[in-house]
Amino acid sequence: MGEAAEAAAAQPRLLGLPGEIRAEVVATQALGRRVGFVPTMGALHAGHLALVERAAADCDDVVVSVFVNPTQFGPHEDFARYPRNLAADLSLLAGRGVRWVFAPAVESMYPPGHATRIEVGGPAIGFEGVIRPAHFSGVATVVCRLFQCVPADAAYFGAKDWQQTRVVARMVADLGLPLTVVVCPTVREPDGLAMSSRNAYLSAGDRERAVSLSRAVAEAEALWSSGSEVAAIEMAMRACMVDRGVEVEYAAVVDAESLGPVSAGAAVALVAGRLGSTRLLDNALLPARGGSG
Question: pLDDT by residue (tens digit) across 73-92?
Fold first, then answer.
């Protein structure tokens, strides 16, 4: 069996201490090997596995982190019930070219007396930043900490959480962190629903209605291509969700990078809504008007 085949067949090595994983990554990079990193909160699904596959294709070695980050959950959000099953996650990752799984304890990521947080402006200000005021500070803080623990060459994120990808990219650029942020396409269920660990919370009825989010952004794509105005597209997205009983939190078309008003560049259609106690997000990238994107 060749080296690549052996790596693909291997069980990932589970590490929990920041110093351990950092030493492993640095030693591997010293041998000239490229390391890819997929940060997750566990409850892995096909969307996560697509990120792993991309990282394995791009890099010599892959790290996957599994850490449910308490600082990005608000006081009345679902931190306590967020699905956790490390054994199942490890089983899913076996044979996929993952060399290490980093699953630290909360105390390892946030030592006693910790008093530092990262605040990001710009793309973090609107949408999720309004609805969940401390969320992106928690995201930026833990991702920066993870990048210190896992000093990879590239980190892989899914496009489903588009605003989060822009916040992370902004932080990496502003702090001069030496890695590349790679954003991979959203992976969807056969009916179009964006894959999410929170889909498991949906009742059967809510699951049927949830597909209206993906239909809303698909409608935005069609209207954008036909030349419709932004306000008309936003109204159509909102109507698509309201008609299926979704409590709409936002439905907007904005600049894809800044998340401000649409400019001459690419745009993004963003939607968020509630079905029962579950919040879901979706989006679609829209090419620059008159261009190919």
Answer: 988 788 888 889 999 999 99
- Across the range 177-203, mean pLDDT stands at 96
Kindly list the domain boundaries of the chain, sorted by start residue. 3-184, 197-286
CA distances from 228 to 18, 74, 253, 271 (A): 50, 37, 11, 18
- Its CATH class, for the domain covering 197-286, is alpha beta
Does 48 participate in catalysis according to the annotation?
yes
pLDDT of residue 6: 55
Which CATH code of 3.10.20.310, 3.40.50.620, 2.40.110.10, 3.40.630.40 fits the domain covering 3-184?
A: 3.40.50.620
pTM, entire model: 0.93
- Per-residue pLDDT tens digits for 195-235: 998 999 999 999 999 999 999 999 999 999 999 999 999 99
**What is the spatial distance between Cα 56 and Cα 49, in angstroms, rounded to a whole number?**
10
Tell me how far apart the alpha carbons of residues 159 and 283 are, in angstroms, rounded to a whole number: 8
Token digits for 147? 């990048």
Positive or negative torsion for Cα 229, 232, 234, 236: negative
Q: How many other CB atoms are there within 10 angstroms of residue 113's CB atom? A: 5
Which residue among 45, 48, 114, 135 is the active-site one?
48
